[in-house]
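Hi support team,

I submitted a single chain yesterday and got back a structure, but I'm not sure I'm reading the token output correctly. Could someone confirm the output below corresponds to the sequence I sent? I've pasted both exactly as they appear in my results page.

Thanks,
R.
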Amino acid sequence: MFFGLLMIVGIDASNIRAGGGVTHLKEVLGAAQPARFGFEKVVVWSSAATLAKLPDREWLEKRSEPSLEGGLRRTMAWQMFDLASRATQAGCDLLFVPGGSFTTARRPIVTMSQNLLPFDWRELLRYGVSAMTLKLIALRISQSRSFRKASGTIFLTEAAKQTVLAVTGPLSGATVTIPHGIDQRFAEAPRSPRSLADCSAADPFRVIYVSAVEHYKHQWHVAEAVAALRAEGLPISLDLIGPANPAVLPKLQKVLARVDPAGEAIRYTGMVPYDELHTRYRSADLCVFASSCETIANILIEGMAGGVPTVCSDIGPMREVLGDGGIYCDPESPTSIAEAIRAMVVSPELRLEKARIAFERSKHYSWTRCADETFAFLASVLSGTANETSGKP
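Hi R., thanks for writing in. Yes, this is the structure output for that exact sequence:
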């Protein structure tokens, strides 16, 4: 595929410092072949720490400036007053802003929606009167304005797109749905499942829930569900894995202290290095994903790719991602969660059936596909041929 004259795309990653935003940028640039889509060079502006995590490519130019090493105010001032001139000096034909918000008047710009929390009032207000609530409201305003002004906007799922559009209204620019990929080290075909008779107190049926501890992740409800199943006599354990919001962690700790004060079977293990995470999936009999607010849920896809059967929240884009590859539950109902887990625990056949479906669906989510579709969309925006498309499996 080639779109004519060689072009240059600039990427404003000035507000991408950690987490999924860095992973997305790193993986897309690692898998990209810009020349196939008419781009001879990609110029990225970000902090030195973020740039150090990006791959080295002949066509990739990494640029940082003192303003990008400071706080939010300095970064926003750089975006507003310096980005346009830097892009002009670099000969950029188009700017890509994966962080969602922009203030520069330069066009054309393609942006990206990677954070659904600001657009869901119910989830946003879980944070009460707090600095986080104010931050999310500010993001709701700035990203809504950016999406309306952009020449193109990338969404990660159709469900997330509809949630955003309910706030912004129809967008004047082109839109496309391009899901993220996952690292192939997570991929492992479903294994023969253990029967309940093979499990015991010493070697329990192992359930894991990988996710940051946040209000909308509902780890405490999962803990309640597993405690109820143990009270029924099921030999089952739960490991909750992930970093924690310090303001939310006490809510989880209070429940854990009540349902399993000795930490014998229901444990919060904290964060596991990302490079080791695939080994946790491989040691599990079942994954639970009980979030109620996601753009795409990469963690869900990692478990799918690992061949692990899944009990999943029935909210947001989860059905779009998992399809018929899991059992669904109400993430705010310990009873619903327990029923879904019980159905999986007692039936090895059901676990294997669902794991196989999920594993096949996970193959759709690759960084190569994500990179190709991203650069194709950027080129189509420049050429004026962009049409609304969907990246559903």
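A quick pointer for reading it: The longest strand covers residues 39-45. Let us know if anything else looks off.

Best,
Support desk
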